[in-house]
């Protein structure tokens, strides 16, 4: 069956929310019945509602008829201008997910083509992403490289005292 790629809109809010939760379950190796953090579905829905309306997020859908085959997203970010990025514009690719029945057909690659083109059209000089072990080979073949100069600190949910 032929796939149709299209940009998602507010009318796709429930489909986007469901696909994001499905992707989280896949990345975290959770069953369909495993509990998710309290409030996560509402937070995902609110994120899409606000980010799609403001234009700070582009969500793409790959559809086989009415069936969702894959998703991908691009967060558009404004950051402090730097030597390597004087405009201070960057993109963060996220939520690349392909239904297992559609894997191995180049869909994620096509999604990357569309998302990186969207980032270029909007003036981004770089795009970043987080990956799983399963996705790493695809992103490396596409040209993504690991960086040595980025670190992350996971913060507690409660504010700590100094």
TrEMBL record:
GO function term, MF aspect, one: acyltransferase activity, transferring groups other than amino-acyl groups
Pfam families named among the record's database cross-references: Acetyltransf_1
Protein name: GNAT family N-acetyltransferase
Origin species: Dysosmobacter welbionis
N-acetyltransferase domain segment(s): 3-162
PROSITE patterns: GNAT
Organism phylogeny: Bacteria, Bacillati, Bacillota, Clostridia, Eubacteriales
Entry keyword set: Acyltransferase, Transferase
UniProt keyword Transmembrane helix, yes or no: no
């Amino acid at each position: 069956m032929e796939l149709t790629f299209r940009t998602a809109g507010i009318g796709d809010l429930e489909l986007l929310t469901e696909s994001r939760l499905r992707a989280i379950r896949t990345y975290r190796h959770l069953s369909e019945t495993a509990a998710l953090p309290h409030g996560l579905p509402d937070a995902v829905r609110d994120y899409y509602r606000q980010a799609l309306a403001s234009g700070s997020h582009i969500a793409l859908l790959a559809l086989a008829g009415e069936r969702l085959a894959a998703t991908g997203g691009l967060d558009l970010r404004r950051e402090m201008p730097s030597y390597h990025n004087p405009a201070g514009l960057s993109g963060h690719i996220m939520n690349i997910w392909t239904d297992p029945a559609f894997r191995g057909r180049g869909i994620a690659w096509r999604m990357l083509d569309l998302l990186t083109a969207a980032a270029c059209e909007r003036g981004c000089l770089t795009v970043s992403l987080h990956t799983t072990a399963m996705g790493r080979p695809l992103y490396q073949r596409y040209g993504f490289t690991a960086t040595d100069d980025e670190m992350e600190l996971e913060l507690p949910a409660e504010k700590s005292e100094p």
